Amino acid sequence: MGKIRSTDEPVGRMAKLMAELHYFMAKEMIDRLGEEKGKEAVRAAITKFGEARAEVMLEEAKEKGLEINAETFSKIKDMPSISWEKDPDNPCDMTYCPMHDMWEQLEAEDIGALYCEIDAVLYNKFNLDFQRPLCKTNGDRCCRFIVKDRK
User: Fold this and answer.
1) How many Å separate Cα 106 from the centre of its chain?
2) Would you put residue 150 in left (φ > 0), alpha (ψ -120 to 50) or beta?
3) How many domains are contained in the chain?
4) 76, part of any domain
5) What is the pTM of this model?
6) What is the CA radius of gyration of the chain?
7) Range of the domain at 106
8) What string of pLDDT tens digits covers the 151 residues of the chain?
9) For residue 86, what are the β-bridge partners?
10) How far is CA 145 from CA 1, 54, 97, 118, in A?
11) Which InterPro entries would you find in this protein's record (predicted)?
């Protein structure tokens, strides 16, 4: 199984635990329901989780009187960026993700990729255009996040 140590940075450790929980829950759904129905169930759960997270973030933005845009999203997002690493020459490229690290250790990047779909749900709720042409769960060297305010 994935290796997590008590001395690991706390946010990264929690991200890895969340990734490992996703793996076990998603794998169980896929094993019990079959590939197609299992993945459908995982995607539905991830969508509902993303929508619930976004609603709380949108509520906070409203309470603070902030516009709904990319800048606000980055200010009030619920998942801290500590432990994730960006390419200093291209800040759209995430070169290290503790969640991906866990899925790679578990040899389950395909199951991890189902979780990564949450980003589209979150950005969509903030009325943002989101593209990820590169993703570590697909074997790419980084996750490239292209996020723009909708016109």
Assistant:
1) 17
2) beta
3) 1
4) yes
5) 0.92
6) 16
7) 10-149
8) 568 888 888 999 999 999 999 999 999 999 999 999 999 999 999 999 999 999 999 999 999 999 999 999 999 999 988 899 999 999 999 999 999 999 999 999 999 999 999 999 999 999 999 999 999 999 999 999 999 998 7
9) 94
10) 29, 18, 13, 13
11) ATC_hydrolase-like
